[in-house]
């Protein structure tokens, strides 16, 4: 705890005041203000615990004086005006008790009052210190009593004067109670007033001993009483200051904690750029501004080339360092444009910038590509002959005639990114609606989807889910695979958007429901099947009836089916989705929320739909290697548990992650550590007591 040397008690007033004001500003509850020293809070707490007579800490005393400086000036000025008014008003008493000198006393009162007001106003105008103004006021109060006492002693009404002098206690009361003088100044001024009284009493005609004793004791008693009251008020004012200071420190700490929590919820724990949730919010804000004010913006997607091979050969630690380096580079380039940088996927970043001109957009995208290449991070395990880390960049901007939906803009940027990869990577592509490569690829996938079911090009494999309470495999997840005619797997990132845009998702979805029931439910192989449902399916008229028809034909009870819904859809804007979910629940079908935490509407979903199960996205578990990520995962688990939902955490790949899930008391887990996806026939009936899930979005295992 920092202490000032008592030998420096004077504190060099000017520098102390400056330092005190700096510390006071540091305790203001503004997130942008510098954080006060941690010792200050401890010093305040210790000071509050001290007995009143114990010596005050010099640091806090300096803070106290600095905070009271301006209020003291204002209060002293106003009090002096009040004191002068009362001083002149007492002239009426002069005319009643000592009328022979009343005129002289009135003139003296007016002259002294004018002098006092002029002097105080000059000092305030010249911004004199509060101590100087207080000293001047105390001197004027004492002078007012002594001048009156000297002039009044010439009266012939000596008996009246002997009693009138007792009113000197009023001056002591003014010095101790009306003004906020320091203890030293109050004592000195009161002693002078009391000394003037005793001197006048000794100079006057001999009074009775009883008079001298009575009024002498009265004066001394008033002196002691006023000093005690002054001391008590001083202690209480100081304690109030300390409590207020402590409250400000606590408020600032709470504000900083709130800011840290907000940052944690909107920041990627590894790279410290915006996370997916924050990016979604920013995109919606920019989209509204574009629609209302016509401010165009662009989305720039950046993907690190061959990053998986980099991780495989150099290790995840080096991979994380590379992600951080790329993120820092993007943030540096985006700053002059007031752009927002976010991590959009494992090795994919996004830049949102308010640029409408395609040439400027191309220049920014190219500067991103070249800046990452200039990092010269070694990567000797690429497939294209390059030896350093590079990025592929795809960008798309809002265009009135083309971009009717926000999702369309991101889709266009994604298509531009894939086009950049197809052109050999380490290049920049802006979305071109007439680009033949993108169009041909989508048409090829659409053609495959049209015949995939009849030609057995689509299939499912199943991955186990383990209950931590029983230690048994109580569920499996089914993953959909789509193959090219030559057996090559097609990424779900490619075929799902095409299936949704072409309408093939409806037939594919019905096939998935029927197949999952046949492979996993009929014959009591697995009690429950979970199927991932597209938002387009939920919006389709008659979807719930088509599901009921399939279950009726196969003789499967509805409560053995669970539909997983991803939170990416803003449910509050789609009444038909809520209606469809309600119809499915009335049939007895279970509803699960998938990949919780990765979309922008998760809390709305939890509020509006009663889910039977909530699955926490694997990214939160993988980020838990850092303290911030672990805190975020615990907060999400606590939120789900407090809502009364059962939960599954995806992506458990190591023993450490499994132990972490046990410590967090998670209900079920899933991942490579539990088991890899295999065909349904390889799952023995004895090992399965729970659920199966069909996942359209991941052609490869999600864990």
Automatic annotation (TrEMBL):
Boundaries of every GGDEF domain copy: 295-433
UniProt GO molecular function: cyclic-guanylate-specific phosphodiesterase activity
Keyword entries, A-Z: Membrane, Transmembrane, Transmembrane helix
InterPro entries referenced in this protein's UniProt entry, alphabetically: Cyclic-di-GMP_PDE-like, EAL_dom, EAL_sf, GGDEF_dom, Nucleotide_cyclase, Rev_trsase/Diguanyl_cyclase
Gene3D superfamilies: 3.30.70.270, EAL domain
Domain EAL residues, every copy: 442-691
Listed transmembrane segments: 78-98, 104-124, 131-151, 184-202, 208-229
Pfam families given in the database record: EAL, GGDEF
Protein name per Swiss-Prot or TrEMBL: Diguanylate cyclase/phosphodiesterase
Species the sequence originates in: Consotaella salsifontis
Upper classification of the organism: Bacteria, Pseudomonadati, Pseudomonadota, Alphaproteobacteria, Hyphomicrobiales
């Amino acid at each position: 705890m920092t202490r000032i040397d008592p030998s420096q008690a004077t504190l060099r007033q000017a520098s102390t005041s400056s330092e005190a004001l700096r510390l006071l500003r540091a305790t203001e509850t503004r997130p942008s203000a510098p954080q006060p020293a941690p010792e200050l809070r401890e010093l305040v707490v210790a000071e509050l615990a001290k007995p009143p007579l114990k010596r005050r800490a010099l640091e806090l005393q300096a803070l106290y004086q600095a905070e009271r400086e301006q209020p003291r000036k204002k209060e002293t000025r106003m009090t002096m005006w009040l004191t002068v008014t009362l001083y002149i008003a007492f002239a009426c008493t002069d005319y009643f008790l000592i009328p022979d000198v009343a005129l002289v006393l009135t003139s003296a009162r007016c002259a002294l009052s004018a002098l006092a007001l002029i002097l105080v106003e000059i000092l305030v105008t010249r911004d004199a210190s509060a101590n100087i103004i207080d000293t001047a006021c105390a001197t004027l109060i004492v002078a007012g009593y002594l001048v009156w006492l000297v002039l009044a002693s010439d009266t012939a009404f000596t008996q009246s004067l002997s009693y009138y002098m007792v009113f000197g206690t009023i001056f002591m009361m003014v010095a101790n109670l009306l003004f906020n003088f320091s203890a030293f100044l109050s004592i000195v001024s009161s002693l002078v007033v009391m000394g003037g009284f005793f001197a006048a009493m000794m100079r006057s005609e001999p009074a009775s001993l009883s008079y001298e004793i009575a009024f002498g004791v009265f004066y001394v008693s008033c002196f002691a009483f006023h000093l005690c009251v002054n001391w008590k008020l001083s202690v209480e004012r100081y304690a109030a200051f300390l409590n207020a200071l402590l409250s400000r420190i606590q408020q600032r700490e709470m504000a900083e904690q709130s800011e840290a929590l907000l940052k944690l919820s909107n920041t990627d724990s590894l790279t410290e750029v915006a996370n997916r949730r924050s990016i979604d919010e920013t995109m919606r804000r920019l989209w509204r501004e574009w629609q209302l004010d016509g401010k165009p913006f662009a989305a720039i997607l950046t993907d690190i080339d061959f990053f998986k091979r980099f991780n495989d050969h150099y290790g995840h630690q080096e991979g994380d360092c590379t992600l951080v380096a790329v993120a820092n580079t993007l943030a540096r380039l985006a700053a002059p444009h007031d752009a927002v940088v976010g991590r959009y996927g494992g090795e994919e970043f996004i830049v949102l910038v308010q640029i409408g001109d395609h040439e400027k957009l191309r220049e920014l995208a190219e500067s991103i590509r070249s800046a990452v290449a200039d990092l010269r991070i070694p990567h000797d395990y690429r497939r294209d002959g390059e030896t350093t880390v590079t990025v592929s960049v795809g960008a798309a901007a809002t265009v009135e005639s083309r971009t009717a939906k926000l999702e369309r803009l991101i889709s266009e940027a994604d298509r531009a990114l894939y086009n950049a990869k197809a052109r050999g990577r380490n290049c920049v592509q802006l979305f071109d609606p007439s680009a033949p490569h993108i169009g041909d690829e989508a048409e090829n996938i659409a053609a495959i989807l049209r015949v995939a079911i009849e030609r057995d090009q689509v299939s499912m494999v199943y991955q186990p889910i383990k209950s931590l309470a029983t230690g048994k495999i109580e569920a499996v997840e089914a993953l959909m695979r789509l193959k090219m005619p030559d057996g090559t797997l097609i990424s779900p990132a490619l075929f799902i958007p095409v299936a949704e845009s072409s309408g093939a998702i409806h037939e594919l979805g019905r096939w998935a429901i029927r197949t999952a029931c046949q492979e996993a439910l009929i014959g009591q192989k697995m009690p429950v099947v979970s199927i991932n449902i597209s938002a387009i399916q939920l919006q389709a008229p008659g979807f719930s009836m088509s599901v009921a028809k399939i279950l009726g034909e196969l003789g499967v009870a509805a409560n053995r089916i669970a539909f997983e819904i991803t939170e990416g859809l803003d449910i509050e804007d789609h009444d038909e989705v809520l209606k469809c979910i309600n119809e499915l629940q009335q049939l007895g079908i279970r509803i699960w929320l998938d990949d919780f935490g990765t979309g922008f509407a998760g809390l709305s979903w939890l509020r509006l739909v009663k889910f039977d199960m909530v699955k926490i996205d694997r990214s939160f578990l993988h980020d838990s290697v850092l303290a911030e990520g672990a805190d975020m995962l615990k907060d999400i688990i606590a939120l789900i548990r407090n809502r009364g939902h059962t939960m599954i955490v995806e992506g458990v790949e190591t023993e450490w992650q499994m132990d972490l899930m046990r410590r967090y008391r998670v209900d079920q887990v899933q991942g490579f550590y539990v088991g890899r996806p295999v065909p349904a026939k390889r799952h023995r009936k004895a090992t399965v007591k729970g659920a199966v899930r069909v996942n359209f979005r991941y052609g490869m295992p999600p864990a």
